[in-house]
Amino acid sequence: MHTIFIAGHARLPSGMAAQNMFETLTITAEIDQKYGVIVAASCTLATSHGRDFVQQLLRGYSLRDGIEEPVEAVKRHYLGKAGNAIASALKDLHKQYGVYLEKRD
Asked: How far apart are CA 15 and CA 2, in angstroms?
């Protein structure tokens, strides 16, 4: 297998549909080990449309290039209440990727 699976977490704002099911938002990503590229991503938003949108937004970014570009893409294109939680979960996911790189080397 040439990919790894990493999760990032963030607290959801109150009053959201997903917040009734989960206390936190989780973004999971399947990442190419060699290049750090997000091959597939998922999140715990309440609607499948929202989950699909986040997947499309994140696919193709390399975590080796940092997390600023995907965070900015979320801020520009995702205008729902969970936008800040998605950005925070991405930052946590990137942090977990850094931990993985440290252990691997």
From this structure: 39
- Count structural domains, the chain: 1
Q: Which domain holds residue 56?
A: 3-104
| Whole-number average pLDDT of the chain | 90
Question: Which tens digit of pLDDT belongs to each residue from 36-87?
Answer: 999 999 999 888 999 999 999 999 999 999 999 999 999 999 998 889 999 9
Q: What length does the chain have?
A: 105
| Beta-carbon contacts of residue 12 (< 8 Å; ≥ 6 apart) | 18, 19, 22, 23, 24, 25, 82, 85
CATH of the domain at 14: 3.90.1010.10
